[in-house]
């Protein structure tokens, strides 16, 4: 693990120095985004699991619009099994990839109903057994519904900003997560992605990041104020 981070970072910065830079970065981001939290509306672990499955390739805003009605109609796993795939597809259509998402939702509902008495399990291994649930979804549910720090959510913002900050050069979410796990203090594993997502939406955007307004600019090796080159993805 150690080798992976050291191999991937751009400079010869030591692991200890990288960790210190991450700690300082987190402190500044917490100050800049004190309200950073999961932006998928939910009132329990099951709703968060459903919302996270729907959020693949879709904005959280769109998911929240769809789940406002969905969660009134479907409250427990059995409700998702009581309708035809066609009906559920129609209810979630605007989130995109609705046929695959319907399969995941009904497959997951079946396992929850038959194996877990309708409840969402709270371990990584059990969540990964659910159809359509990969590490990102499992981490979202574990961290935000159960307060279990099993890993770090890596989405497009986390991946992009981790690259720009020189925290990982990996290209897959699972490998980026493994690099981050070595650098981010465990107490911050849940809040860290929320901070990067807030920063990615407002300042460190995919195109034209506002390095001149960035609160962590002094800790960022990719800042165009230092390199003169606009950071890529
Ligand atoms: S300095 Fe620029 S590239 Fe670095 S984190 Fe800030 S906005 Fe992103």
Question: What can be said about this structure in brief?
Answer:
This protein is mostly helical.
Which characteristics define this entry?
233 residues, mainly alpha, Endonuclease Iii, domain 2, Endonuclease III, domain 1, 2 domains, 13 helices, binds iron/sulfur cluster
What percent of the residues sit in helical stretches (DSSP H or I)?
A: 55-70%
Provide the CATH topology of the largest domain: Endonuclease Iii, domain 2
Write down the Rg. 19 Å
Q: Name the average pLDDT.
A: 95
Using DSSP, what is the number of strands? Answer: 0
General shape:
elongated
Q: What is the CATH top level name of the largest domain?
A: Mainly Alpha
Question: H/E element string?
Answer: HHHHHHHHHHHHH
User: What CATH architecture label of the largest domain applies?
Assistant: Orthogonal Bundle
Q: Biggest sheet: strands, sense, closure? A: none
CATH homologous superfamily identity of the largest domain: Helix-hairpin-Helix base-excision DNA repair enzymes (C-terminal)
In the predicted model, the low-confidence regions spanning at least 5 consecutive residues are 6-10
Percent strand equals under 5%
Can you walk me through this structure?
By secondary structure, the chain is mainly α. The protein has two domains: 2-32 and 152-227, Helix-hairpin-Helix base-excision DNA repair enzymes (C-terminal) (Endonuclease Iii, domain 2, Orthogonal Bundle); 45-145, Hypothetical protein, domain 2 (Endonuclease III, domain 1, Orthogonal Bundle). The protein contains 13 helices and no strands. The protein has helices at 2-8, 15-32, 45-54, 60-73, 77-81, 85-92, 98-115, 124-128, 135-145, 156-164, 173-183, 191-202, 224-227. Helix 6 crosses helix 7 (98-115) and helix 10 (156-164) packs across helix 12. It is elongated and about 60 Å long. The two termini are 24 Å apart. Residues 6-10 have low confidence and may be disordered. Residues 161, 164, 203-204, 209-211, 214, 216-217, 220, 222-223, 231 line the site of iron/sulfur cluster. Iron/sulfur cluster (SF4) binds at residues 161, 164, 203-204, 209-211, 214, 216-217, 220, 222-223, 231.
């Amino acid at each position: 693990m150690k080798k992976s981070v050291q191999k991937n970072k751009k400079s010869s910065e030591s692991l200890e120095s990288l960790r210190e830079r991450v700690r300082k970065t987190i402190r500044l981001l917490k100050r800049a985004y004190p309200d950073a939290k999961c932006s998928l509306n939910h009132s329990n672990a099951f709703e968060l699991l459903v919302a996270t499955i729907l959020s693949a390739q879709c904005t959280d805003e769109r998911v929240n619009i769809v789940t406002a009605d969905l969660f009134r109609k479907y409250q427990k796993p059995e409700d998702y099994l009581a309708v035809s795939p066609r009906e559920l597809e129609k209810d979630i259509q605007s989130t995109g990839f609705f046929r695959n998402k319907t399969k995941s939702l009904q497959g997951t509902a079946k396992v929850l109903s038959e194996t877990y008495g309708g409840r969402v399990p709270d371990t990584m291994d059990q969540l990964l057994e659910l159809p359509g649930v990969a590490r990102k979804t499992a981490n979202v549910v574990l961290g935000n519904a159960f307060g279990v720090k099993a890993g770090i959510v890596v989405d497009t913002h986390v991946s992009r900003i981790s690259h720009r900050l020189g925290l990982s050069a990996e290209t897959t979410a699972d490998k980026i997560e493994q690099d981050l796990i070595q650098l981010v203090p465990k107490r911050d594993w849940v809040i860290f992605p929320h901070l990067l997502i807030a920063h990615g939406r407002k300042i460190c955007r995919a195109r034209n990041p506002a390095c001149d307004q960035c609160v962590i600019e002094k800790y960022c090796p990719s800042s165009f104020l230092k390199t003169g080159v606009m950071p890529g993805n």
